[in-house]
Fold this protein.
Amino acid sequence: MEEILTPAERTIMSSLANDEVDSYVLSESSLFVYPYKIIIKTYGNYQLLLSIPPILKLADALNLRVKKIMQTRGCFFFSGAQPYPHRYFSEVVVLASYFGKLASGGNAYVIELHVYSSSAVSADNSNPIYTLEMCMTSLDRKEASAFFKSQYVIFEK
């Protein structure tokens, strides 16, 4: 795990696991490891693309192949504070150097979110895997407190 997190300058703050998923709260990020996929979400300083080479190296050592990659990002606030290749969407398409050879060739879109997606042709569609990503912005601060564990977390202006 250290080999994957160090390039992105992330450390494990806490973790939980069950039969379905191992979840980690990282410094400025969250990591979810399923038997069939990895999800990494980040907040703040964005350096997760630097973890791609060690993830691919580990996958190769385990004889695993990438079937799909999707990277989404809302806004590029404080772009100048981010390290290359995380400053601008034009740099984030460095993903194509890793995943552009998959069957779909890789595509980048801006549809309220900046989205990069690439996938291999799947011979087995009998058990499709669905992932829902829900992004909520401009929420009323008091109403947003419903998404926190503690009843005392209410943002004041």
Summary: The CA atoms of residues 84 and 91 lie 7 Å apart. The longest strand covers residues 113-119. The mean pLDDT is 74. The two ends are 39 Å apart (CA to CA).
